[in-house]
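User: Structure tokens for both sequences below?

Assistant:
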Amino acid sequence: MKRRDFIELLGTCAVVCAAPGMTWADAGEKRGKILYFDLSTEWEHPPTVDEADGLSYAAKKIQAWAKPLGLDVVCSKDGSLFDGDLSQYAAFVFYTCGELDKAPEGKIGISEQGVKNLFAAIRGGTGLLGIHSATDTWQCQGELFENQPESERTEYIRMIGGDFITHGDQQETTLIPTQPVELPCLKKRAGAPIRHFEEWYCLKNLNPDMHVILVQETAGMNTDGHNACYKRPSYPSTWARMEGQGRVAYTSLGHGNEMWDKELVQDVITDLVAFVAGQIDLDLTPNLEKVCPGANVLMEK
């Protein structure tokens, strides 16, 4: 079964500064640069659709949230950028979807060499943050509700850490911060459980070396009809890991424009941008089996 056939429809963080209350830029550090890339070759999410000024809603948010971190943001859907000098970027932020090297007419995909450059840059120390449909990018083949052996997963899925299966209706559920709490915005909330309304991705092919930051509780979720995909144990929604020298992070948050107006989404994405850009450190001890012991158990076919 093809995944698209299955779908019925488809803080500002604390950074190390010269004095309390100062931003990264205030401390006199050289401004860094990140590349926000939101090319979609399949389903295009509303926050990634370019508006009248040529920028998507999410692109403008990322620019605003990165500014206090002292980071300039290049926003693009042009895959040819990966044929150029990638050493200028501290990190990439991907809100992508589909096969990025197979762009349809009117879009510029990433070339074969550009793909190699992307992986080389990350393994050489450039960070990567994936948002929402970044796990619906360069996916694995095989049965929908079945984990593939690590050796059969795409290079990208092994790197980003998880693979999109499907999603049900948008609904509210609980996110549980793992302990000890590392992300500044979760410390601000005293590590308390968080209720959040979102389009929740069901994920598989989870990288065993990830450090889970937020666990998505499935107990109490609507599991009727096509929501049956949530009939499974709790699993990660936000995590971080290393790919060579590069810091990699992912959050499933951020489906619609209205989600990007929520404080939680701003805070989590801002903190993760700071992490992948090397401004804050997180404990990356693998904890998948400890905090989500049934995460690899999927809904019965």
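Moving on to the next sequence.
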Amino acid sequence: MSYKLVTLGGDGTGPEVMREGLRVLNAISSALDVSWSVDDVPCGGQYYLEHGDRDWPEGAEARCDAADLILLGAVGWPSPTGAGPVLMKDGKMAGFSPVIGNRTRLNLFANVRPVKLYEGVQHRIHGQNKQVWSPGQVDMVMIRENTEGLYSPTGGKLSPGGRTEVAIDTRVITRRGSEQVIRFAFELCRRRNKGAPKDGKLRVTQLVKDNVLHGCQLFSQVFYEIGEEYPEIEKDSAIIDAFTQWLMGQPEYYDVVVTTNMFGDIVTDLASVLQGGMGMAVGANIGRDHGMFEPIHGSAPKHAGKDKVNPIAMILAVKEGLEWLGNRKQDPRLGRAAQAIEAAVIDLLKTGAPLTYDLVGEAKAAKCSEVGQWISEAAVRHLA
């Protein structure tokens, strides 16, 4: 059976990490006799600057709709004027269509971000260079509502005389949006069946500001309504600003975390500090019929073309995508491939080389391509 894969390399270092993700995918697929029909769709700020009217080609939406799996690199490119990223004529960042557009159009309502510290990786919280948290203490999944909230296209600007005087962003929280992502969180907690590292309890924590915000009050109401259907899972609630300190102070307490769009966008980047930084952090955009998988780091224009950045997040995004698609298509080969990729990453991190600058420093740094090659070969060995 052949699967349809759409790749959205994007800007800057996005195509570089995508190259290494595909290197691993091709190696593991060949070993398992899995074939892919790959459709590479250019997109992002650089594409917009070249073409002037769109941030990806005509018909790209339909190409994504037809895919069994979508892989995204990174989007965003500096404006030639030096004032932030390239913006399109409608004011949206060039790269909006493949990212926010896909999330909304395909109803990829759950943004799923595993936060796991692997052995051999030093997190970014240090006390006199001591390892504060051990790998077993950081193992949670954060789930962010992915289609509404402050990303809803309901705001705007007022610019009398051409000068912007008023800017409004309206936060939209609906019962439907809350229900689907909260149920996803409880179901994932049940499937993981791990519990929090601290006490082994199955626990879903909601992050809200329900002492102030109406949308959070609705989200919390839905959380407890749905939670009644999962009596074996502990229901936990945290005010978002207080949670940021608890996350850094006791990450071992958390199993599955669910929250609204903007809160989740911010706090999952913070959580990446616990797992060694953005080069280790994966984002899965999952709906009922489609899935798009990506590293959560940006396009890093200053590193573009240097074969320098960490490809592990992209490679782990491939792993997450294979696991999701294998479950969806009931294809155990894809599940084996996902397991082999993660095992290869674990081997590399324990070995300690080759690794990129963000993990070992400039003096010991290997190239992006060297890391990808090592993992691809190790993943195949795990299938033997």
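User: Anything stand out in the second?

Assistant: The CA atoms of residues 154 and 170 lie 6 Å apart.
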